[in-house]
Amino acid sequence: MHQTVNIFKTRDLLMSAISCIKRKLVFVVFLLVIIVSGVFLIYNFLETVPSGIKVKNNSGEILKLDDEYFYCAGDKIKNCDNSSVLYNGNENVIAAASDKNIYVLDGMKISKITSEGKIVAEKKLKVSSLENSCPQIYFFDDMVFVSIDNCVDKEFIFDEELNTIDINELKRNSDHYEINRTEYFIVDNDNSFLTIAEYEDKSSFIALTDKSDGREIFSTGRTISIYDNCLFLYYCNSSHDKFDLNSQTIISSFDNTNGFSYSSAKINRNHVISVGMKTNCSDIEYSDRLKDHHKDIIEITDTNGNFIATHETKKHERIIFYDNEKAVTYYNGKYRTYDLNDWHLISKQTADEIQNDGSYTFESCGDYVFVFDDNSGNLLNTISIM
To answer: What is d(CA 1, CA 8) in angstroms, rounded to the nearest whole number?
Structure first.
């Protein structure tokens, strides 16, 4: 009888101990959930996420003249160092620079100005209106190129003194090719290849390629490049074709089916580097709004269509610059520089100017990325990319 009582007491003590352990485990688990949730909430509270990030290149809003940088702010051109005004225009301006002069597109007029802001030549564009258009202006190889997207004759080319160069005359003295029902007229200049492309519906674009490395200098339409007697055609989903100019056949292709939306590409003799984005919404291909952003992607192939590598960013991490060696991103209050070969982090620097819910534009020119506030238009920072 005494042994039976002891057994029951022992069982009760054991059950009590187990119950106590369970209560402690529940408490520990509950405490861990609170700690993890707190850390998550604190991280998200402290994370600096602007409402929008725009990335531009070759927009005509940043230019380099000698060793000075200038930016277009509405109807003015200002010095990036001290914000002094170099040019006062009548409308919103964009510009391009040669070694010694700046060519300003101000409404329907082009002006050639010196580094002191003196106007030395002017030319009126033969267009009726710039309303609802997105004009572009470039300078290379002693020529000024202007494109206006709402005009029938939308492409204009001038020499350094703003004398008109006849595009039809250039076409007559070019090498002509037809690829997939698109005509390509290739003009061999001193340091570049000028390509004039015309589609079946007679719409057109022009592109310029550096002879030395096949690098595209600008294009008013599709990204293309010319090197080693090949015309390289790039499509918006990062697929591309390599067309042999001698045999007049497509000799290699790369077909992309990963579902990303690609916004830009850089091509040289060895690589095609494409930058794209994946959003949170299936019906949105590309967005400057960070709330839509899932991740950015860099895809690298060779120029024969062989896949090399893919690098992806974190959520809310935007690529603001890339070249053949590195990429610079903005992420959570920092500018981060990655090696393009293996995506290891090279350096970080603080982005104090970026605030929660702000909207910013990043544009690269020369050795820097320039950071602008979209609301005020002010230049906030200059980031070295050397």
So the answer is: 11
The Cβ-side half-sphere exposure at 212, using a 13 Å CA radius, reads: 3
In 3D, which of 95, 127, 91, 90 has the Cα closest to residue 114? 95
What's the pLDDT at 76?
Answer: 93
Cα–Cα distance for residue pair 85/74, rounded to 1 Å: 12
Q: Residue 45 is inside which H or E element, if any?
A: helix 2-46
Lowest mean pLDDT among 176-190, 295-309, 326-340: 295-309
Are 206 and 197 in contact by the 8 Å Cβ rule? The answer is yes
- Distant-in-sequence, close-in-space partners of 206: CB < 8 Å, separation ≥ 6: 145, 147, 155, 157, 194, 195, 196, 197, 219, 220, 221
Enter the DSSP assignment of 79. Answer: E
User: Cα separation of 71 and 60, whole Å?
Assistant: 9
CB atoms near residue 249 (< 10 Å):
10
Contact between residue 303 and residue 242 where contact means Cβ atoms under 8 Å apart = yes
Per-residue pLDDT at 204: 87
Task: Count the neighbouring beta carbons within 10 Å of the beta carbon of residue 369.
Answer: 21
Amino acid of residue 317: E
The token duo for 174 is 């070019």
pLDDT greater than 50 at residue 5: no
Chain-centre distance of CA 13, in angstroms?
Answer: 70
Strand, coil or helix: 301: strand
